[in-house]
Amino acid sequence: MNKKKMNELFPIASQTSIYDKNVLIEIINFLSKDNMKFKYLEIGSYLGGSLTPFLKNDYCSLVFSIDKRNQNLEDERGKIISYKNTSLNQMLDNLKKFNLNTKKLKTFNGDVKNFKKKIKFDLVFIDGIHTDINTFSDFLNSLKLLKKNGIILFHDSSIIFKSIKIIEVFLKQNNFKFSLVKFKDSEITGIFFNLYSRIFFKHKKFKFENFNKFIKNAENNLLMEQINNRLKIKFKISRFIKKKFPYKLSLITNKKILKF
Predict the structure, then answer these.
(1) Which CATH number fits domain 3-220: 3.50.30.10, 3.40.50.150, 3.40.50.300, 3.40.50.620?
(2) Could you say which DSSP state residue 98 is in?
(3) 187-213, pLDDT tens digit by residue?
(4) H helices present in 84-235, as ranges
(5) Which residue ranges make up each domain of the chain?
(6) How far is the first Cα of the chain from the last one, in angstroms, to the nearest whole number?
(7) CA-to-CA distance for 134 and 160, rounded, in angstroms?
């Protein structure tokens, strides 16, 4: 897809890469290929950047955004990220600024485990709190809201890969019919259930990578980030002169809050 078309579909700045955006577009094309209507649920919408192609798509009949806003969130990297200044109204203003039709958009401010509406979705995109525990909780509660033939996508796979692997074990032990795929060069991993576990792979637009090989690289990268975020290293010149181990190591207890 050319840059102009991509910018039209994703006019709001977001934390999704060009590869992530291509995956979302092709998933939309897959779901709407037979002129079928579908419903989309997104967990963790931030400023609305990944909602826009669904709002623009005529075959997407409902867009539901669930987000735990106005709080500091920690993730598996040991970072604390502040979303205290990103309100629902700010997201809605962003969408209206680009003349997006928000009539089919519904929102819920809170955790998906407290979402009680009896709606079944064709596609769920999980991009909430990036801890393994929270990702697993989001998945279990999303599964209750998913149609029999449905898709669940996970963003930032390099951070929450352990949770995705545990989810794979859970699904196998409970005899679900599914396919798990890691999209090449993207941070998105997808789980396709029942009929979609088979027919999706006839859609030739995607390239995949081995999830277990991806995990090995992700583990090393995550470990380095955790060390950088949790370990304070000081070089002591006096110890170096005395030919002693010159580094002083200590745990960081007061973590810096990153603001978005």
Answers:
(1) 3.40.50.150
(2) T
(3) 999 999 999 998 877 766 778 999 999
(4) 88-97, 132-145, 157-173, 196-199, 211-230
(5) 3-220
(6) 29
(7) 10
| Residue 31 in this model has a pLDDT that exceeds 70 | yes
- Return the top range by mean pLDDT from 116-120, 202-206, 230-234: 116-120
Tell me the one-letter amino acid at 185: D
Q: Residue 2 in 3-state DSSP?
A: coil
* Helix-, strand-, coil-residue percentages of the chain, each rounded to 5: 40, 25, 35
Beta-carbon contacts of 44 under 8 Å, excluding residues fewer than 6 positions away, are 66, 67, 126, 127, 128, 129, 155
Neighbours of 123 (CB within 10 A): 24
The helix-helix angle for 211-230 and 157-173 (nearest 10°) equals 130
